[in-house]
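step=encode ok
step=design start
structure_in=
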């Protein structure tokens, strides 16, 4: 049986009304654990977002006990809707 622990990435408040505040909550860090015969394999993925909540970077560390499987992706462009 595997397990996953997720740490949120919180932005905001994005809006307020009286005592109420709205925040954007997305996955920031995800740690996954897979059982092995002698313990657990832990993998980790870190995701960062811009001010619109769009992904700007995904750092996939893979198995945290080795750097050989690490991958990092940067997103430098974003799709925008045409005016009108």
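sequence_out=
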């Amino acid at each position: 049986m595997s397990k996953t622990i997720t740490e949120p990435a919180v932005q905001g408040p994005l809006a307020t009304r009286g005592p109420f505040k709205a925040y954007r909550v997305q996955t920031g860090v995800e740690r996954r654990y897979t059982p092995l015969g002698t313990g657990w394999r832990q993998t980790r993925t870190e995701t960062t977002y811009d001010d619109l909540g769009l992904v700007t970077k995904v750092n996939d560390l893979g198995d945290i006990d080795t750097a050989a499987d690490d991958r990092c992706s940067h997103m430098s462009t974003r799709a925008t809707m045409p005016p009108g």
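step=design ok
step=annotate ok -> The chain has one domain: 3-74.
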